[in-house]
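[Discussion] Sanity-checking designs against the backbone

I'm trying to build intuition for which residues belong where. Below is a structure token string of 470 positions. I'd appreciate it if someone posts a full sequence so I can compare it with mine line by line.
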């Protein structure tokens, strides 16, 4: 192995060793952020030149940031001072009618207010910067271009965001709350109330369009409709969603919606912002410099292959010299509010086909089975032709109460097969190995998903291995 020898410099007859050139790779900023706990000496964080930057007000906080792999930047205002300043701004903002947004900007260590034509209402508040903008934000709706729309009743279309399931394995998708205001409204997959796919805002408890957020749920209940983690990118290869994350200022993000230009990318400019849409003020939203138009509402925002948000609104313009300011609702908040599990998949990989005749595929990763949570595990079948009859699913692991479990198989086409439904008054342990026969007749190749939902308290277990023979 070749060794790197430090360079030397001759100075006044002395040899001085110089450090060897460093080829260290900067740590991934999101990993650094996840490992860096919040502390009193921090005042925000953002991504700059591929590194995580942390605003700090103390030497201890700076040392903590460096130790985690972040770059500290000393600022004058603590997070507590910024939040107090934001509270003062929020009270004044209630009496204004020309504001677009307000919130903390960690990069400048200020509270930034965006107002149409500017505003003098915040004079005297040190640390508040007012930016003049030309247009207000709008919660978008409207019939513009075809794509992947859904129609709430007889209204104009919105966009589908991310599919998810509940503890019983029922299918849903997330979208904007202002698209789901009406309780128990029929949801359609085509204009003129055609191709019903399910029901929006079931029971009147599956939609929020207020200070809490802009988020809603549509239940997918009609025969023939399936849900998929593959995001439509309109001409490019689909992006398979592999999980959900929180956005950081400086993140590169993209959104998919059914209005041209359909697939649009940009950067996160601010998080946790209060947005005044004219008819409602919503807290906790994220802004970007990407453009969007009417009909994009409810669409999917991603950071790479991770879900980050549901499209909420923006300038409703994608024309030259009109800077984009698209807005999204963080997806994790919506999932948590309704106890839903994001439907995810495994991106395609170049694995070769198995040996002729070999049609069993296995995932041996351990997954803990916890109370009222759903385990999702996938395998990719790299084979040809149709499935054999029956498809055999072998589940290995342990659990203290089989009667508490819903076990389902989801095929590559999105079709659901229920292997085990919860129910019963007496608990029996899950066998160490249990095989299910599934009457499936479809294309064998693709990603198969096993889902185990725990619907009872006080019992635990682990999925240790599962296989499918197709």
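Best answer:
Here's mine. Compare freely.
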């Amino acid at each position: 192995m070749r060794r790197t020898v430090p360079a030397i410099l001759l100075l006044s007859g002395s040899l001085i060793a110089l450090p060897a050139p460093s080829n260290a790779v900067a740590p991934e900023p999101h990993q650094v952020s996840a490992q860096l706990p919040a502390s009193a000496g921090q005042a925000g964080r953002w991504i700059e030149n591929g590194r995580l930057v942390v605003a700090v007000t103390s030497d201890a906080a700076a040392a903590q940031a460096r130790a985690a792999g972040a770059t500290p930047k000393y600022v004058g205002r603590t997070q507590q001072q910024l939040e107090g300043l934001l509270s003062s701004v929020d009270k004044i903002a209630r009496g204004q009618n020309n504001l677009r947004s307000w919130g903390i900007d960690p990069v400048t260590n200020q509270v930034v207010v965006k107002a149409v034509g500017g505003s003098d209402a915040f004079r005297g508040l040190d640390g508040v910067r007012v930016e003049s903008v030309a247009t207000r934000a709008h919660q978008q709706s409207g019939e513009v271009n075809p794509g992947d729309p859904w129609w709430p009743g007889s209204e104009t279309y919105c966009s589908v965001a991310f599919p998810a399931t509940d503890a019983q394995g029922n299918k849903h998708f997330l979208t904007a709350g202002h698209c789901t205001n009406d309780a128990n409204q029929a949801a359609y997959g085509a204009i003129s109330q055609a191709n019903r796919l399910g029901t929006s805002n079931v029971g009147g408890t599956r939609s929020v369009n207020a200070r809490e957020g802009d988020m809603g749920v549509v239940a997918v209940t009609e025969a023939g409709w399936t849900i998929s983690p593959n995001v439509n990118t309109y001409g490019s290869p689909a992006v398979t969603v592999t999980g959900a994350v929180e956005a950081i200022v400086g993140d590169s993000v993209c959104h998919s919606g059914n209005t041209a230009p359909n697939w649009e990318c940009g950067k996160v400019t601010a998080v946790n912002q209060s947005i005044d849409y004219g008819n409602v003020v919503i807290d906790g939203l994220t802004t970007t410099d990407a453009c969007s138009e009417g009909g994009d509402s409810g669409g999917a925002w991603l950071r790479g292959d991770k879900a980050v948000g549901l499209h909420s609104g923006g300038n409703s313009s994608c024309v030259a010299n009109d800077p984009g300011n698209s807005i999204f609702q963080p997806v994790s908040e919506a999932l948590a509010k309704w106890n839903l599990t994001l439907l995810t998949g495994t991106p395609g990989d170049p694995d070769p086909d198995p040996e002729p005749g070999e049609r069993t595929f296995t995932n041996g990763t351990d997954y803990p089975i916890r109370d009222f949570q759903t385990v999702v595990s996938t395998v990719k079948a790299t084979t040809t032709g149709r499935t054999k009859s029956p498809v055999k699913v072998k589940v290995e692991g342990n659990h203290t109460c089989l009667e508490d479990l819903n076990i389902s198989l989801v095929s590559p086409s999105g079709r659901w097969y229920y292997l085990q439904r919860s129910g019963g008054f007496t608990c029996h342990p899950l066998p160490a190995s249990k095989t299910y026969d599934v009457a499936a007749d479809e294309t064998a190749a693709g990603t198969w998903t096993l889902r185990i939902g725990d619907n009872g308290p006080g019992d635990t277990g682990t999925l240790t291995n599962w296989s499918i023979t197709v």
